[in-house]
Design a protein that fits this description.
The structure is a homodimer. Chain A is 18% helix and 29% strand. By secondary structure, chain A is α+β, with helices and mostly antiparallel strands.
Chain lengths: 227, 227
């Protein structure tokens, strides 16, 4: 049993977060369910990939990342973003990828972090509410699920460059495999692919540049929010 | 009054579509409401931008693009994508950007096409269900709304390169301004910005490469769907 499913990535290392002080005062509904656990909408392939990574997690090499209705529940208590109490009252906000209540319709996914390889694997099963062209996933969902992998790191996405190789059918199960290529000061360079679990079909390849957020970025966020 | 709000882009020109034959047999629920019209969740800014573009549409320079629960309702009847009857039974599918029923929670947007400038303006008001970091829009939504502008053109996105300049607060009203820079054979090069209506704040800049779909691409889609 996992003692506490809340984890966070700080300096590209997941550690258990603290409960942010004052959180209960502002967040009425609480974190609710952890979406990164199997449900009845998961296909056999999805469940089998999940079980494989859970098995590999026993050694501590991989760590499952929890996922709740708002991103802040999966972020550390001390995160600078908690310093915006004016956002707390927006308790009707939902994390973009967890905004549908019916299981299986939207983003079904679970992420596993490998600290030694600085690599995130996301097992993704796109549901029928993510449609672009008839029967296929909207390109924006693919951008979203790639961008998602490092959103818990207090990193701001500065650039996202995606090459779409083939249209992804709704209901497929794919692995989104992202890893840190290098870090230069506050910049983190990441590359990723979206591919079938057997590696025989690549749907997209992407590179990302993230900027670590610091108190200055925090002020920028604050400024931006006033506009 | 608009005689028929269904339009489509063929060779980068919007023309009224035909009713696809056999459509009523496969699509049980019908197109339903047109989401690209004002509702009570639209802010004053959003409505005022909408009215401005509707006013400019009177001369025929701009055309409002309708938007329904599935993209196929806004595509031409003769579109090659209708040649996949096996996808029709997925009548529970929803277009990614129109998958929430409660107004104001998700993607509130309307697109206007300017044929002479080959330019699409999207007025976008992101709701609280599009959250990434607390109070701000998920980067994937920005990618989605940019990619969206030309999704009706029977164009397959080959590359999407986004530079995020500043985090976009939930509830903002922004203009997504995309235009065709050049066309080379089956390739269409597009650039776009996401900015405040007054132009004083730019949130993202993007370039896109689209490939026109032809019967060969159609077979690729067919192949992909079998995998």
């Amino acid at each position: 049993e996992m003692p506490n499913p809340w984890w966070h990535l700080r300096g590209l290392c997941w550690v258990p977060p603290r409960q942010p002080s004052g959180m209960s005062r502002f967040c009425h509904s609480g974190p609710g369910k952890d979406y990164a656990l199997p449900n009845s909408s998961w296909s056999k392939d999805m469940t089998s990939q999940f079980n494989k990574f859970m098995e590999m997690s026993k050694s501590g090499l991989w760590q499952r990342i929890s996922s709740h209705r708002r991103l802040m529940y999966d972020l550390p208590g001390g995160n600078l973003l908690f310093s915006f109490p004016k956002f707390y009252p927006q308790s009707d906000s939902r994390f973009f990828c967890r905004n549908l209540d019916v299981e299986g319709l939207g983003f079904e996914y679970v992420m596993f972090w490998n600290q030694s390889e600085k690599r995130m694997i996301c097992i993704f099963q796109p549901g029928p509410y993510l449609e672009g062209y008839t029967g296929f996933v909207h390109g924006g969902c693919i951008a979203t699920i790639i961008d998602n992998a490092f959103i818990g790191c207090a990193l701001f996405t500065a650039n996202l460059d995606i090459n779409y190789k083939a249209p992804l059918p709704l209901g497929s199960v794919v692995l989104v495999d992202t890893k840190v290529d290098k870090t230069e000061g506050r910049k983190t360079f990441i590359s990723g692919t979206v591919q079938r679990a057997d590696g025989k079909m690549v749907y997209a390849h992407a590179t990302l540049l993230f900027i670590h957020m610091d108190p200055q970025t925090s002020s920028q966020l604050e400024e931006a929010s006033k506009l």
